[in-house]
Amino acid sequence: MPDAKMSSGLSRRMFMTASVSAAAAMPLVNSPTRAAQPASAKPAEPRDLSAVSMRINKQTYNLALDNRTSLLDALRDHVGLTGTKKGCDHGQCGACTVLIDGKRVLSCLSFAVMNQGREITTVEGLASTDGELHPVQQAFVDHDAFQCGYCTPGQIMSAIGCINEGHAGSEDDIREYMSGNLCRCAAYPNIVAAIVQARDEIRRA
Amino acid sequence: MNQAAPAPRENQGDPVVRIDARLKVTGQAGYPADIVTANVAYGALATSSIARGKVSGLHTKDARAVPGVLDIVTYDDMDKTDTPKFGNTGASSIGPLHDKTVFHDGQIIALVVAETFEAAEEAAMLIRADYEDERPAASFDSKGVKMEPAAGKNPMFKEDAKAGDFDAAWADATVKIDEKYSTPTQHHNPIELFSTTAIWQGDQLTIHEPSQNVTGWKVELARQLKLDPANVRIVSPYIGGAFGSKGPMTARTAIVAVAARRIGRPVRCVVNRMQAFGTQTYRAETRHRIRMGAGKDGRITAFGHEAWEVTSRPDPYVVGGTSATARMYNYGAVLTHVSLVHADRNTPGYMRSPPETPYVYALENAMDEMAVALGMDPVEFRRINEPEKEPIGGKPFSSRSLIKCYDQASEAFGWSKRDPKVGSMRDGDWLVGMGCATAIYPTAAAPCAARVRLTADGEVRVQCGSHEIGTGVRTIAGQMAAERLGIGMDKISVEMGDSALPPAPVSGGSISTASVCSAVMKACDAIRGKLFAAAAGRGAPLAGSGNAKLDLKDEEVVTETGKSAKLADVFKAMQVGAIEEYAEFAPKGSSPEALSKLYAGQSEFHGGENDEDSVKYAFGAEFVEVRINSYTREIRVPRIVGAFAAGRIMNTRTARSQLMGGMIWGIGQALHEATEIDQRHARYVNRDLQDYLVPVNADIKQVDVILVPEIDHQVNPAGVKGLGELGNVGTAAAVASAVYHATGKRIRDLPIRIDDLIG
C-alpha cells in the first residue's frame, strides 16, 4: 500500500498504484482511524488528489481522489462497486441513485470529496449476508419491475428512499416521487406495484 | 400471481421469473462498462462543431499538456485500418478519422486517452479544430438536400408495393381522404451509455461493448482492423437497453481498439449522453401523404401512401414501412412510393419497429379520419376492411387475429360506453377522448446455432450467442430447454452475449425468440433422441418400449403407458456423464448459403411479406383514453388497453412486460419524444435526458395487456411470432384519435404537445 501523502505532491506512479488497488475493490489504506486530509484545509487545485474516507456498505474506504471525481465514478472506478450505474452523469436519469446517510442522492452530482465521513449504501449493500434479498429487491423480482435491468439499482435505491421519506402512501405519490428515475424499458406500472408490496412489507416488519 | 404474471391461456407458457432477476436487483449483472479491468486507461471523444465541410487543422497541444494524457488518436492514426461499411452490421460508411471530410455535426475528430476519466474529459474539451465549413442542409426543407427514390437503393427495400389501378380507383371513390402526416427525429436513449472497452492480449482483441450483434461485429471489426476474426471477441452479456441502437457497430469501436493497441493498455471509452446523439444512430424524421378512397358502404377502394425519409449524405438507410401498410387492409388498388432525402446528418439506424412506427402512425390516423368521414365506428370500419388475402401479392396470412384483438381489447376498455360525438365526454375540467388503432409487425426468423448440454445429474447449460437486451430471451431459451428436457428452471443456466458462443442473428426485427428457441429446440430434440434410443435399447431401463412414445419429465424418461426411468440410470446405461448437442436452425426457404452467412456475421431474414407460401405478421389492437385539461390543455393518458396475438407466447410475464413497455414507448412517441434540430447548423439541440423528453413514472397510469391466444404452425418450428416491437406500433395513432375525439383537433404531426391544442 502506498503511503499516500494526500496533496498535490503525489506522483503519477503513486497515483497509478492507488487507482489500480482501488479498482480491485481494496480499501486504499486499511486503517480506518487514519485521519484523511480534509478537503477544506486549503483551496485545492481540481486535479490534485484529496484524501477522503467514507463508509460504503458498512466498510471503511480511504481513497485518494481527483477533486473532480464524482461519488459515482469513485464507486465504480476506484472502489469496484459497479452496481451503481451511469446513465447521464447530469442528474437527469436517476440510475446512479445511492443512499447517503439514509437519504437518496444522485451520486453523479456529488463530488466524492464532499462525502468525507458519510455512510454510503449502494445496491450491493442491501441483501443480507445470508443472501436474503431486501424487501424492495424481492418485490422488484416478484413484479418484473425491470427488463434490461440497467436503471434497476437506481430505482431500488430510490424506492427505499421514497418509502423511508413517507412518499409511498398512494400509487399517485409513488409515481410522482419516483419520476426522477427513468426506465427506458418502461416498467413503470410494475415498479409502482413492487413499491406498494415492499412498502406494506416494511411497514409490517 | 400478480398483474406482472398473467395466467397462461392456450398456447402460452408459464410466467417464469427472469433467470437473471436476482443478478439484476443486486447489482451483480455485469454490463460491458462494469467489467473490472486492471490498468485500464480512459477514453474521451472530441467531436466536430460543424455539420458540413473539412477539418483543415487540429490543435492538440493544450490537450496533450493535461497531466495524465497518454495519447490522442486522430487523423492518419487509422490509416492502417479499413473504413467502416454501411449495412446490417455497420452503422455508417463514414470513417470519421479516415477522412477529414465532415458529414454531420458531432462527428468524431479525435479520441483522447488518459490515466483518469477526469483527465480524458478535460483534454478532449481542449482540442480545437479549424474548419473549411459549408452551409449544411439539415432536413427536408433545407436547400441542398438530394432526393432519390428509395426502392432498390438498399437490399432491405427492393420495390414500392403496388396493386391494381390506383388512379382509376381514386378517381372513382365517393369518399376521399388526402392528408399529410409527419414524425420527428427520435433518439433511442437507452439508459446505459454507449461504451467500448478494448483489451489486447498479443494479437487477440477482446471488446466489451453493449451489442445486439456480437457475431456480426466480430467479423466487421476484424475486417476493419485486418485481423483474423478468430482473434476478435465481442463480449456483451447484459445490455442496458438497446431498442436498435446497439445493432449496428459504429466507428468508435475500431478507434478505441487502435488506441488500446497504441498505448499497450486496455482502454475504456464511455461516450457521454450528449455525444451519443451524433455518434450513434437514431430514428430519422419522416413525412407521409396518404390518399384513401372508399365507398359509402365503408369499403376501401384505393390506398396511396407516399413517404419521405431523411438519411445521411453517403448512406442509403431506408425503412420503407409501406411494405406493411400496403398489406394491412383489403384496399382494392394500392400505390406506394418511398423517397430518400440525403442531408448533412449522421446515418440513421434501426429504432424499435423502424418502419412500422412512423408509417403505421400515418395509416392509422388516416383510417380514423376516414371512419369519421364515413360516419362509421372506427372499429367497425376496420372490421369491414379485414382482408382474406393480403392485397399486394394475393398471399394468405399464416394467421391473422386482428379482429379477435379488437374484440377483446374493446370489451376490456369499455369502448361501447364511448359517445362518438367529438367533445361530448367530459369529466369536470377534463375533456375525455377515446381512440384506437391497429398494431402490426412482420414475423421473421433467421438462422441460429445453439449448444445444449445435459449432465447425468440433470444440470442443463444452454449456449447461444444471442443478446439479453431486456426482452427475456435468456429466460425463454432456458424455458424451452426445461420443457424439452423435463428439467426444472433451477437447474438451467443460459450463456449469451459472447461471440465465442454458437452464433445467433442480430437481435433485431423481433426475431430472437423465434430463431433462438427453434435452435435450442433442435439441440434438445437431438438429446432426446439419444436418450430415448438408449433408454429403450436392449438391457436398458425401458427396454422394449421401442414403439411407445417417450417423453422427458421431472428428470425421468417416461413412456405413455406410465413406465419411467431415472435420467441418471439412462446415463449410466449409456456410460456417459453428459450429452452435448450443437444444433443449427435455418428457417424454411433459407438460401444454401444461409448458415455459412450466419458464421460470417450476416443474418438472412425470412418471413414477413417475403415468403412464398404466406405473409407472416403479428397483430394487435390498442385503445387509449386521454384527458385534456380544458384550461391548460395538459394531456394525460390515464389508461391504455392493448390486445395482441403473436403465436405461441413463451412466457406471459416477459411478453406482457415487453408489450407494456412498447405501449408506453408509443405514448412517448405520441406526446413526448422529439430531437429538435437547429436548422441553420444541422445540429441536435436537446441532447440530454432533461430536454429529450421520455415518459416518466408520473406520465403513466393504467396499462393493460391482453395476450390473445393464437396458434401458427407456419411461422417457425417454435410457433413463435416476435412481439418486442409490436406494442409501440399504432399507439401514437390511437392517442391522436383520442385527442381528436376529445377536442375536435386532428394533430397530424408528432409529437402532440400542449401548444398544438391551444386556440
Summarize it:
The complex is a heterodimer of chains A (205) and B (759). Chain A contains 6 helices and 5 strands.
Describe this structure as you would to a colleague.
The complex is a heterodimer of chains A (205) and B (759). With 205 residues, chain A is an alpha+beta fold. Chain A folds into two domains: 12-125, Ubiquitin-like (UB roll); 135-204, DNA polymerase, domain 1 (Orthogonal Bundle), CATH 1.10.150. Helix content of chain A is 33%, strand content 13%. The N and C termini of chain A lie far apart (43 Å). In chain B, a hairpin with a 4-residue loop joins β20 (448-455) and β21. In chain B, α16 crosses α17 (731-743). The radius of gyration of chain B is 27 Å and the shape is globular. The model of chain B has no long low-confidence stretch (mean pLDDT 97). Chains A and B meet through α1, α2, α3, α4 and α5 of A and α1, α3 and α16 of B.
Please give the largest β-sheet of chain A.
5 strands, mixed
Could you tell me the CATH topology label of the largest domain in chain B: Aldehyde Oxidoreductase, domain 4
Q: What is the share of helical residues of chain A?
A: 25-40%
Which runs of chain A of at least 5 residues are low in confidence (pLDDT < 50)?
Answer: 1-36
Instruction: Tell me the number of helical segments of chain B per DSSP (H or I, 4 or more residues long).
Output: 18
Shape of chain B: globular
Using the coordinates above, name the CATH class of the largest domain in chain B.
Answer: Alpha Beta
**Mean pLDDT over the full residue set of chain B:** 97
- The CATH architecture term of the largest domain in chain B is 2-Layer Sandwich
Q: What's the CATH first level of the largest domain in chain A? A: Alpha Beta
Q: Assign the structural class of chain A, choosing from mainly alpha, mainly beta, alpha/beta, alpha+beta, or little secondary structure.
A: alpha+beta
The proportion of residues in beta strands of chain B is: 15-25%
**Most residues in contact, chain pair and counts:** A-B, 71 and 75 residues
Strand content of chain A: 5-15%
Keywords (chain B): Molybdenum, Oxidoreductase
Pfam family, one (chain B): MoCoBD_1
InterPro entries (chain B): Ald_Oxase/Xan_DH_a/b, Ald_Oxase/Xan_DH_a/b_sf, Ald_Oxase/xanthine_DH-like, AldOxase/xan_DH_MoCoBD1, AldOxase/xan_DH_MoCoBD2, AldOxase/xan_DH_Mopterin-bd_sf
GO molecular function, one term (chain B): oxidoreductase activity
